[in-house]
Recover the amino acids of this structure.
């Protein structure tokens, strides 16, 4: 059983000035149940890369679990830099198919594109994530204080995953049979970097419902990053996570669907998408840190219903409510769905008014997935 906390100052630390010991993090985009299905294939072209990826990911989880850091809270830096100076600082490195980080630096901030498309996509994806958080939520990089954005491409041999390790984004090239290059979907890049935002805010524990919320928050903002870049309204968006990541041999459209959890794929090799859309089908399991990639479908669907119910650009109202809840400082690291739902109701009331349509829409969206928002304690 892996209980994974994030390295960094969370909202509690910033409020109290206390020093906290927290575990470092390993958050991959591809759920272990998908790789497990692949590892049981009778085709070595499929099972060998999947088994190597599973072994790598298990080792990384163990390393992160036993690696603790002591963080002392200091003053929050958001807003200190002049607006004109709030620009990204990106560095892309090439692992050259080894598993040693960071690899060789191949592109830095402001440099021209290179011949390697993976490098350029990673660079652009980091920039798109930075822009969404700055322009829509006034957040200066993922820590709110201008943190440099680092990424490594071409990690490992046919490595079928991408992950955030607490400091950087890491992308595999995929096996070419099931998975394409992991720099292709911008929402995957945004998803992983949003784990860093969670790391520096509520610090949600990576297990059970808090872990599912952790994954869901990354899906929400990963989708918003894609929508913002494409200029899509909530009604125009596909609400898919990892669209284009599968090769043509896979019967599926993406890793997850926020619009219709449980329908993203149904494949002889991968199995069927196990995500539930409501609490009625909540999956109780000891694997995948208590089903963090599975039960995230429930808060994902709540957000989808809110965004489409409100209409317009999802980052303007629905995304703002989710961001305010995430950064409120009122959530505990072990917050469950009800606690997070309560925080979003309070956030909607605070920003848009107690009697506004936004608050009512939030309550309805959670009710539709079977979650009753917990009442927030007065500040």
């Amino acid at each position: 059983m892996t209980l994974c906390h994030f390295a960094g100052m969370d909202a509690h630390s910033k409020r109290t000035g206390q020093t906290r010991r927290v575990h470092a993090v390993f958050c991959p985009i591809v759920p272990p149940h998908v790789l497990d299905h692949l590892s049981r294939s009778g085709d070595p072209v499929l099972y060998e890369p999947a088994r190597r990826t599973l072994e790598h990911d298990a080792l990384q989880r163990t390393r992160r679990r036993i690696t603790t850091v002591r963080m002392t809270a200091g003053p929050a830096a958001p807003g200190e830099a002049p607006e004109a100076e709030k620009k990204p600082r990106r560095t892309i490195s090439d692992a050259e198919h080894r598993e040693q980080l960071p690899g060789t630096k191949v592109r830095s901030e402001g440099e021209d594109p290179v011949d390697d498309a993976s490098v350029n996509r990673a660079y652009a994806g980091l920039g798109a994530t930075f822009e969404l958080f700055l322009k829509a939520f006034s957040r200066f990089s993922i820590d709110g204080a201008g943190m440099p954005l680092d990424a490594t491409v071409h990690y490992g041999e046919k490595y079928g995953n991408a992950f955030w390790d607490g400091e950087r984004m890491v992308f595999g090239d995929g096996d070419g049979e099931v998975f394409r290059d992991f720099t292709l979907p911008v929402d995957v890049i945004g998803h992983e970097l949003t784990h860093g935002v969670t790391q520096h805010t509520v610090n949600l524990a990576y297990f059970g419902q808090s872990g599912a919320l952790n994954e869901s928050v990354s899906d929400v903002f990963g989708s918003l990053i894609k929508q913002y870049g494409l200029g899509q309204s909530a009604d125009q968006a596909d609400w898919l996570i990892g669209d284009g990541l599968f090769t043509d041999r896979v019967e599926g459209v993406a890793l997850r669907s926020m619009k219709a959890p449980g329908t993203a794929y149904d494949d002889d090799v991968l199995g069927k998408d196990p995500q539930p859309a409501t609490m009625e089908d909540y999956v109780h399991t000891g694997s995948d840190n208590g089903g963090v990639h599975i039960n995230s479908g429930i808060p994902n669907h709540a957000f989808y219903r809110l965004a489409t119910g409100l209409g317009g650009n999802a980052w303007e109202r629905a995304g703002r409510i989710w961001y305010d809840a995430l950064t409120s400082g009122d959530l505990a690291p072990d917050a469950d769905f009800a606690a997070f739902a309560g925080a979003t109701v309070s956030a909607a009331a605070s920003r848009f008014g107690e009697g506004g349509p936004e608050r009512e829409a939030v309550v309805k969206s959670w009710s539709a997935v079977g979650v009753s928002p917990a009442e927030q304690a007065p500040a």
